[in-house]
Amino acid sequence: MEAENIRKESLEAYLLLESLIAMSLLVFFVTVVLEQVIQVKKQIAMENREIEALNVAHMAVDTGKKYLKLNGVEISIEETSTQMTIRESGEVLFVLEKNKVTAFTLLESLLALLVLVGTFSLFLGMTKMFHEEVKRATTDHTQDWQLFCSLLRSELEGASLDKVENNYLYVRKHVNLRFGLSSQGDFRKTNANGRGYQPMIHHLKNAKISQEGEQIKIILTFEKGGDRTFLYTFPEKES
């Protein structure tokens, strides 16, 4: 009887030890996964900031500003006769030769966006847990915003400013166009009479469009919170 009790106690102790080992392994695994998720979040945040810095630098060049603080990014531009240095928060972001200033193009912006999306997709493929966690971590509309800026900039290039009226932007191109917020919560392009349907970005709470001379400012407010600002300067009208 005593021997049976000893065996029973030994078995219980063994099972308890196994449970503790399994729990320790589980805690270790969860810790490793969480650390990797945190690293993924940091990497994505860094890439998003770099892309937004490129975007704001593009706006600074478009509007002829030497200093521009916008969307949480601070850009300064220094020019010499041969090159242009672009700094973000005091650190050198780009150094461009004067004959290469055209590098700020839609193609380069989209290329940077594709790199970001590719990196993001790679991390999503790691595990289902990573997928859900990273998806929740990147609900700040960064990618939608970057694509919107590229699309709108492409639409406005080669166009002339007509007017800003009733919170809509009117431009003249090969056809007259209108841009603004719809009642469905998307920012869309239509013809000057409001006909046609080409949404450029969704899930908006508000959009405010203003004009100062040939420069327009568009402030988008997202449904889930947060504002983003887009600046663009049209060529001056000939007298």
Automatic annotation (TrEMBL):
Keywords: Membrane, Transmembrane, Transmembrane helix. The keyword Protein biosynthesis does not apply. InterPro entries: ComGE, ComGE-like, ComGF. The keyword Iron does not apply. It comes from the Bacteria. The chain crosses the membrane at residues 12-34, 103-126. It holds the Pfam family ComGF. This is Competence type IV pilus minor pilin ComGF. It comes from Lactococcus petauri.
